[in-house]
Write the structure tokens for this entry.
Amino acid sequence: MPDFTADKAKFDELKEFIASKKDTQGPLMPVMQKAQDLFGCLPIQVQDVIAEDLDIPMTEVYGVATFYSQFSLEPKGEHVIGVCMGTACYVKNSQPILDRLAKELKVEVGKTTPDGKFTLEATRCLGCCGLAPVIMIDDQVFGRLEPDEIPAILEKF
Ligand code: FES
């Protein structure tokens, strides 16, 4: 885990942002979004600052951080793989695709490989159901996939 406390400039920017939002309505979501943009994720040290400066319980910050999928508690890998688990993809066998990715990368869903290269995620409908089953790696879409195509796709990254 990187040492986020060393990032003084980012903490200063976050604290300034919190101060500017503190007295507005519903400051928590914009503050968390800002923190995630700054740090790439919401590690515990960052959540601490948010709770303290907004003067709200840590449990509230943690609850929001874990509830909304746009927030991540851990840094993401260099490449983020999203496997669509929407209905169209699911019926076209996205589960075996996800399983194969987990096996090839030796990583659980929602986790990042130890070398920091890939994060594997299950997602909702990606909006291209005609190509089911679909995965996205960063901003590239791969559709009509078979599990056996996975190793060659990963090679490209
Ligand atoms: S269900 Fe997978 S893209 Fe829509």
Observations:
- Helices lie at 8-21, 28-39, 44-54, 58-67, 87-91, 94-105, 150-155.
- The radius of gyration is 18 Å.
- The beta strands are 79-84, 118-123, 135-137, 140-142.
- The first helix runs from residue 8 to 21.
